[in-house]
Amino acid sequence: MALMKREVRKAWVLVTREEDAPHIWVAHCLELDIVSQGDSIEHAFEAVLEAVAMAVHDDLADGLDPFKARKEAPQDDWDRLFRLLRSGVPLESVPSEMRSKISCVAAQLKLTIEKPASAPKQKLSDPLSKLVPPLWQIAALENLRGPDSQRC
Amino acid sequence: MPRLSDMKRAAKAYGVDLVTGGKHWKFTKAGCRTYPVPAHNGLKEEISDTYVRGFCRCFGITDVDKFRSLL
User: Fold this and answer.
1) Is the pTM of this model over 0.95?
2) Cβ atoms < 10 Å from Cβ of A26
3) CA distances for A149 relative to A12, A87, A88, A136, A146, angstroms
4) Are B26 and A34 a contacting pair at CB < 8 A?
5) Of A83, A144, A149, B36, which is most buried by a Cβ count within 10 Å?
6) How much is the CA Rg of chain B, to the nearest whole Å?
7) Where are the alpha helices (DSSP H) in chain A?
8) ipTM of this predicted structure
9) How far apart are the CA of A69 and the nearest CA of chain B, in angstroms?
10) Tens digit of pLDDT for each residue in A27-67?
11) Is the separation of the CB atoms in B35 and B8 below 8 Å?
12) Who among A26, A35, A58 is closest to B34 (CB)?
């Protein structure tokens, strides 16, 4: 039986409404600069999980560390994340009638990568990606916190 | 808003190919990392500008406006 090495990496995902198309939610994995989209917040998260898993699998199959082979997202996106982390609220705390006010959401994605400890040419299993923890998401709401609140 | 079919055509001009199959298709080019593309609606999928900019960064396309003009 081959010895497997398990590595856990985390990455930030920022989900925002597309400016020109409010019916589209865009999900952006910042560490890997991978973008996907969906027609709801949850759908966008699911889409980016799939996209990241696929991209990471391709990188590993080429013998590359995805976090080194890919550039991070531009600084503007990171700044947006930092603003959200400072002023946002947990998504689970947002009343359903206020969800339409959400402008962006952030969550951490957990990648569990298993690869052989040796013999790198062995087939790699698909990396498992999921949100960690599933409900720990922070939402920025337009005007929720009053006149001092900032848009994400 | 451009659709995936428009992206496919414009990407070709930069030597980037669309590989189809499964839930997530991907753009590929020799010497670059693969870039997944959401294809829930196949080639009719509307592509956000955020995705277009990420695509350009992945494949080293610095003139994003020029790429957009091909969409």
Assistant:
1) no
2) 25
3) 22, 7, 9, 21, 6
4) no
5) B36
6) 11
7) 41-61, 66-69, 75-87
8) 0.94
9) 8
10) 999 999 999 999 999 999 999 999 999 999 999 889 899 99
11) no
12) A58
